[in-house]
Amino acid sequence: MDVSGEENDDGSEDGEAEGDDVISKPSGIDAGLEEFAKKMPLFEPERGESGGTLEKPLAVNLDLSLYKARVLARKYRYEEAEKILEKCIYYWPEDGRSYVTLGKILSKQAKRTEARAVYERGCQATQGENPYIWQCWAVLENKMRNIRRARELFDAATVADKRHIAAWHGWAVLELKQGNVKKARHLLAKGLKFCGGNEYVYQTLALLEAKANRYEQARYLFCQATKCNPKSCASWLAWAQLEVQQENNRAARLLFEKAVQASPKNRFAWHVWGVFEANIGNVDMGRKLLKIGHALNPRDPVLLQSLALLEYKHSTANLARVLFRRASELDPRHQPVWIAWGWMEWKEGNISTARELYQRALSIDSTTESAARCLQAWGVLEQRAGNLSAARRLFRSSLNINSQSYVTWMTWAALEEDQGNSVRAEEIRNLYFQQRTEVVDDASWVTGFLDVIDPALDSIKRLLNLDQGLINKAREPSKDAESIEDGAEEPFLTTLGLNDGNDIGYGSRFDLNAFIKDKLSLDPSKLDLLMENSGNSSPKRVTSPRRMWRSQNRTTMTLP
């Protein structure tokens, strides 16, 4: 009242709006509230539930949430991980990591349509400037066999960032699977040009050289890969498998040792090494390595599958069945487990059981390479059982998935030959040679590509002996393991200590028992006990008392 009186005394007009003088003369408090209201938003979509606005969380919460989501995904708690990632996308739509992680989690659950939608939403939110989303989307389309679309997405990833090595490498691998070797080499060379040395690019180039029987070049490239990243378990394993193919068992064993030292908990390293030892006759060593791998990765079905096949060959079928059952319970959607189990039952004479297991494998996915192998194995079963029409249908179905399978074509031809249909058998063989994809790979690229690897071409030529007879020398039949002692594998195997002229028996001074005891806290004498315990109950991580005390007193941080 006093304020309004003062305004009247100052000469404010009274007759502006007759009958509405109360409304037309707001008090000082009302004017202040009006100005305050103008600054307030009318409403906040999806954030006004608590009656006020919520501030954007700190960026550190994004990193913590992404870490928590990955941990939950590793524990197969996908729904909880998805909820966390959706919140991350809501609060930080411009960050591409949330889209990539969520898309991968959906892909693991075979929700490929939903994963595609997430990647598309991420590309729109980041305005197409995040190469990681493009690359993951391309990998997804490649798995769905949309090759043309995958190429477009890989191209978009390289446009977004030409230094994104994963895009160059993934695109090159796609072209290799399509038989475009020259295109793949060109993409890998571009990756090295823009991104510098990378172990995955060197490794893929080395595998191409090994496939073309240019083993010295392959060893050089593997050496480059391990120099780029000495902790790259994949490079050591790929190099080891090259030496296995060349029957250089001592070199292969040393490389396997390097692989497990580079990544002690890597399931692939223990698996491939264990299978290698079993194949060369060291059954006990192979069994031990597979058990170590299972103790470190108790939820991996592949290790149990290989262990089951080993036990079937060298022990009893009943023990193998127990291991197959445990593997199938760990991952019911892992097709090779059901296929291997069906093959064992067929060998044991349990035809109906084998059919059921093959049918179970095909019910998971009937379009994969594993499905093609399953159909081929089932066809052999029906052929031996006398169901020739069923065998023919199964072989045809297998070739519809993988028309490049030499084994399937020749097995079908042999069936017709056994039935006296020589003309039909010859037609089947001709069909294989007519439709197969011929991959022609020349050696002319080597000299030019080495310019990209290292400008010092003369020194590399001396290293690889790139002279007149290089290609002919590289294509000679491989030497046996004894040639290592004569120094024929230098200079690459010299770094591994293989051509020093010393007979080191098993392979090296590497103490496996001491390694797993010191680095992995595993007791070699209790591996069998660990196998039994993992079969009786689900694997649980042992928590130290100190960590338990910390977890009890720690307050959890959640997103608003």
TrEMBL record:
<dbReference type="Pfam" id="PF13432">
    <property type="entry name" value="TPR_16"/>
</dbReference>
<dbReference type="InterPro" id="IPR019734">
    <property type="entry name" value="TPR_rpt"/>
</dbReference>
<protein>
    <recommendedName>
        <fullName>Protein high chlorophyll fluorescent 107</fullName>
    </recommendedName>
</protein>
<feature type="compositionally biased region" description="Acidic residues">
    <location>
        <begin position="1"/>
        <end position="21"/>
    </location>
</feature>
<dbReference type="InterPro" id="IPR044624">
    <property type="entry name" value="Mbb1-like"/>
</dbReference>
<feature type="region of interest" description="Disordered">
    <location>
        <begin position="1"/>
        <end position="28"/>
    </location>
</feature>
<dbReference type="InterPro" id="IPR003107">
    <property type="entry name" value="HAT"/>
</dbReference>
<feature type="compositionally biased region" description="Polar residues">
    <location>
        <begin position="550"/>
        <end position="560"/>
    </location>
</feature>
<dbReference type="InterPro" id="IPR011990">
    <property type="entry name" value="TPR-like_helical_dom_sf"/>
</dbReference>
<feature type="region of interest" description="Disordered">
    <location>
        <begin position="530"/>
        <end position="560"/>
    </location>
</feature>
